[in-house]
Amino acid sequence: MVSIKRTTIRDHAHRRILKDKLIFGMVIFLSMVTISPIILIIAKLVINGFRQISLNFIIQNTPGTFEAMTAVANGELIPGGIANGITGTLLMVALASVIAIPIGVVTGIFLYENPGKFIANLTRNVADILQGIPSIVLGLIAYIWVVKGITNGFSALAGSVSLAIMMLPMIIKSTEETLKMIPQTIKEAALALGVPYYKVILKVLIPTGFSGLLTGILLGISRIMGETAPLMLTALGSTVVNFDISKPTSAIPLLIWEFYNDPNMVSLIWSSSLLLMGVVLLLNLLSRQLANSSI
Amino acid sequence: MNSDKITKIVLLSASLIILLVSGGMVFSLVKGAIPTFHAFGLNFIISNQWDPSQGKEAYGALPFIAGTIMTSVTALLICLPLSFSTSLFLGEYFKDKKIARVIRLMVDLLAGIPSIVYGLWGFYVLRPLLIDLGLPNQGFGVFTASLILAIMIIPYATSLSNEIITMVPNDLKEAAYSLGATRYEVIFNVIIPSARSGIIAGYILAFGRALGETMAVTMLIGNANVIPTGFFDTGNTMASVIANQFGEADGLKLSSLIAIALLLFLITGIINAIGKLIIKKMA
Hints:
The structure holds 2 protein chains of 2 kinds.
Chain A: H1 2-49, H2 55-59, H3 65-73, H4 83-113, H5 118-132, H6 135-147, H7 156-181, H8 184-192, H9 197-208, H10 210-225, H11 229-232, H12 252-261, H13 268-294
Helix pairs in contact in A: 1-13, 4-7, 4-10, 4-12, 5-7, 6-7, 7-10, 8-9, 10-13, 12-13
Chain B: H1 3-40, H2 43-46, E1 50-51, E2 58-59, H3 62-93, H4 98-112, H5 115-132, H6 142-167, H7 170-178, H8 183-212, H9 215-220, H10 238-245, H11 251-282
Antiparallel strand pairs in B: 1-2
Helix pairs in contact in B: 1-11, 3-6, 3-8, 4-6, 5-6, 6-8, 7-8, 8-11, 10-11
């Protein structure tokens, strides 16, 4: 009687330990599955894309579809590059930053300075919701506001506005979070010296939280740089380098989309994606490095 | 007026700009959608017709609402075991270990990959694989799109639940261990119950992401303006139909696309608000 009971207890313990090991193995396995796409994607881009990357790829405009077809037929690399996309991306990201960074940082400061106020709570909630709005909807908004309302046609400005709206909540959030970490005493010390309020903000709060602010900004830029959908509805694309913000403009993601849809240009998608991903991930890592070193 | 007052006004006005922009967005979407709701009424939401032919134009959003829900829910189901395991890996099994930092960085980098690159990878790598496995429709369809979507939302689901799991107090876990609990018993009887609302909030926010993803889905779902009849059937989501049909749209069609954008705006807004509310309740 006793011996039977003992074996069932031992069996039960065995089963529990076995189950524990099983779950552990599954966690390891599924975690590896989770991170495998990042390795596979980067590998695919590097293997298929590196051959095309050269100086010409960065300083020349996109080739015509006929040129590309001839090159592919002769077994050569497709001539030309994506200079129009690179300059377009730089232009639109810069313009979006110019719009979003000041408004975002100042709003973040407002939220930090007035934590309990109704209007601050409202703004915080609205910014939270804004962060979740799909980028294609923001593209449609910029189309209605800028393409239809201001530039009377597809334009870099419209693209920038959609990207700026996307960037705003990220900057507001990171500004507020950064400022919250600054010791209250530093601000009080400045105020006690009779420093005017705006100087406290410009000379104390912003410099102290600078690396935190920069982290948020870099992360925001890396996020909007790869956006395609809103630009399809706003900037449209262009085959030449364009710096006029009221004219249609290309961007690297837009070019990838064009290459994807043009059978003759298909081999250009990998090098363009490699370049785009390289810059985006670099910015991402840089901001992370900055965030770690600032704490 | 002194400088302090001016500073306060500047701060306030930046905040008002945010409110104005957001209010303006709702206003513009509603205004743009009016012709559609004027023509079809609320039938727009439950009609499954999408016929742009001149003279007998008829638009309904149901196929796209159905497509959006099907892809997002499937993506969430695929993402669930993966991201949950990963957050246990990061927040429990290898907490504060070097390997956890590396894995965490890789998961975070997943969030940095542009949507269009996911689309390309899905089109050129995943789709041929699925065709070999016998998927119909050239590998296009709800399932393929969901698979890519699942990968895309993993970082959003993982980062929050990982954070919450890390925050579960050690004394709770130690109490269970001292009673002789195995690790998985601690996970299922202590960690999950006490981190539940945070984990759920993470998945809700990830679901909100999945609803609005555009490019990758557009490249993989097959772009058919009908209600998908199965998981391997082609379809369209609300976001992908806007991307697809926008190019040749004006008049009533454009208005219908704006109406779809309005619905998408409302749905993602509500989903996000619920997620944030749960997080706020926890804090």
